Structure formats: structure tokens, C-alpha cells
């Protein structure tokens, strides 16, 4: 397991600075950060999973009320799963837009 102390040298060291400037091997930095987040344990990882589950739950509640076609269910759940709360906020904006247009018609 990689600890935060191991990854901080990558982010602040000379190699990390050159990678951020677009030097060869610059694709490795995001991969290291993602691996460090996924291998983490404890409260931060639990908080990430909890907020994802909460976003998916709120999406299901919102979609139940709208009663869309099953393809829209899959699309919205996939969007929220992949983008987390940004996708849920997009769903809320879409629902507000539909309600506003429905009220005008």
C-alpha cells in the first residue's frame, strides 16, 4: 500500500514538477493519484463511497417521480455513477427545466 508520505514526494518533488509541465511521462501522475485514492482505507474512502451511494439513492427517488422510460433510467444512473454529484446536479437541473416548461404549457 502506498501511503500519503510516499505520494507527496511525487507531487512536490522535481519529477512531479516536470510531469506537470508536460514533460515525457506526464501521464503517470494522475494514475498515481487515482491508485493512491483507491488503495486508501478508513474515513476518506468510506466518505467517497457513502456520497456515491447517497447520490444514486437520490437519483432513484427523482426518477421514480418522473417515471421515464427504462433507457433513461439507465442513462441517468450511469451518468450519476460516473460523475458523482455533478451528474446528480445535472439531473436536478433537467427536472427543474421540465417542470418549468410543463407549467408554461
Describe this structure in words.
By secondary structure, the protein is an all-alpha fold. The protein folds into two domains: 4-39; 43-104. The protein is built from six helices and no strands. The longest helix has 24 residues, at 43-66.
Which properties best describe this structure?
105 residues; mainly alpha; elongated; 6 helices; 82% helix
Pattern of helices and strands: HHHHHH
Mind summarizing the main beta sheet? none
Helix-strand category? mainly alpha
How far apart the termini lie comes to 58 Å
**Number of folding domains?**
2
Radius of gyration: 20 Å
Beta-strand fraction estimate? under 5%
Number of discrete helical segments: 6
Q: Overall pLDDT, averaged? A: 74
Shape: elongated
Total strand count, please? 0
- Which residues sit in consecutive blocks of at least 5 with pLDDT less than 50? none
State the helical fraction: over 70%
Topology:
Blueprint: H1 4-12, H2 14-20, H3 28-39, H4 43-66, H5 70-83, H6 85-104
Helix pairs in contact: 1-2, 1-3, 4-5, 4-6, 5-6
Task: Compose a concise summary of this entry.
The chain is mainly α and 105 residues long. The protein is built from six helices and no strands.
